[in-house]
Amino acid sequence: MLHLSKVAVGCATAEALRIRIAGRAEGGMVRVNTRYRPTRHAELIGGSLYWIVKHRLVGRQEILGFAESEDRRCLIELDARLVTVQPHARRAHQGWRYLEAPPPDFGGGDVTDLPPKLMEELAGLALI
């Protein structure tokens, strides 16, 4: 399955990203505006958009589809739920990039119940 990665511009923490997503959710969906539609967009539906915060993949949202805005930009339609993933180093980039080998989800358990700041500190030390 094919996925995308994208920098969460303006989000200094994973918690800031979570708050941004919650604020933009409408009917269980969030739309992300980007300049170009991926050429492999049909392969991406059902995959995920992985968010980069401080040079780490920190979370993902399922890609539901693609649309076009009134100004002819691409809208990536995402599930409003942000799934925490095991932090994985990733260089920042402009726009989006294809991602074929994403990190695994945390999969529940006590780690996801930690306060976001503590979770980020532990990830920064490569302890989780």
β-strand number: 7
The main sheet comes to: 7 strands, mixed
Q: Roughly what fraction of the amino acids lie in strands? A: 35-45%
How far apart are the first and last residues' alpha carbons, in Å? Answer: 25 Å
Structural class: alpha+beta
Order of helices and strands: EHEHEEEEEH
Taken together, the total number of domains comes to 1
Helix content: 10-25%
Low-confidence stretches: none
> What would the average pLDDT be, to the nearest integer?
88
Radius of gyration: 14 Å
Q: How many helix segments?
A: 3
* Rough outline: globular
Protein name: DUF1489 family protein
Pfam family, one: DUF1489
InterPro entries: UCP032025 (IPR008320)
Description:
InterPro entries: UCP032025. This is DUF1489 family protein. The chain has helices spanning 14-24, 41-44, 116-124, and strands at residues 3-7, 29-34, 48-53, 56-68, 74-79, 83-89, 96-99. The chain has 128 residues and is an alpha+beta fold. It has one domain (3-124). β3 (48-53) and β4 form a beta hairpin.
Secondary-structure blueprint of this entry?
Layout: E1 3-7, H1 14-24, E2 29-34, H2 41-44, E3 48-53, E4 56-68, E5 74-79, E6 83-89, E7 96-99, H3 116-124
Parallel strand pairs: 1-3
Antiparallel strand pairs: 1-7, 2-5, 3-4, 4-5, 4-6
InterPro entries: UCP032025 (IPR008320)
Pfam family, one: DUF1489
Protein name: DUF1489 family protein
